[in-house]
Amino acid sequence: MSECIFCKIANKEINSNLVYEDESVVAFRDLNPQAPQHILIVPKKHVANITELDDKNLAAHIFTEVVPKIAAEVGVDKSGFRLVINTGEEGGQTVNHLHVHLIGGRKMTWPPG
Ligand code: 5GP
Ligand code: ZN
Q1: How do residues 36-48 score in pLDDT, each as one tens digit?
Q2: What is the pLDDT of residues 77-99, one digit of tens each?
Q3: Bond from prior residue into 43 cis (ω within 30 degrees of 0)
Q4: 0.70 exceeded by the pTM?
Q5: Catalytic residue check, 99
Q6: H or E stretch including 56?
Q7: Element (H, E) at 38
């Protein structure tokens, strides 16, 4: 059985605050939210990070269908939001299962820390 925490959330071995699910993706609220809306969009299959994502259909599904749907559902589609994919050690990735942060509900600053 996988020890990966996001695999466990996707398999429902661990509870999460799910906001979206389909056959290939789950999305749930971040445990430590950085904004009023902070949702993690996660492929159900284990992909370590964006450099390992070789499934073009899954990539297109996430960015053309799942992101717009969730953004509208949580009410940030008009006001704006930020997508973040931390990758590797210097990218600040702490969970080694690909996830897209969808962050919104407040004004974002730039540059990131
Ligand atoms: P990363 O730093 O890898 O880009 O993001 C990992 C994110 O996962 C962090 O924002 C962290 O708060 C969140 N996180 C870690 N463990 C859990 C968990 O068990 N449940 C939920 N909902 N979020 C988690
Ligand atoms: Zn995993």
Answers
A1: 999 999 999 999 9
A2: 999 999 999 999 999 999 999 99
A3: no
A4: yes
A5: yes
A6: helix 56-61
A7: strand 37-43
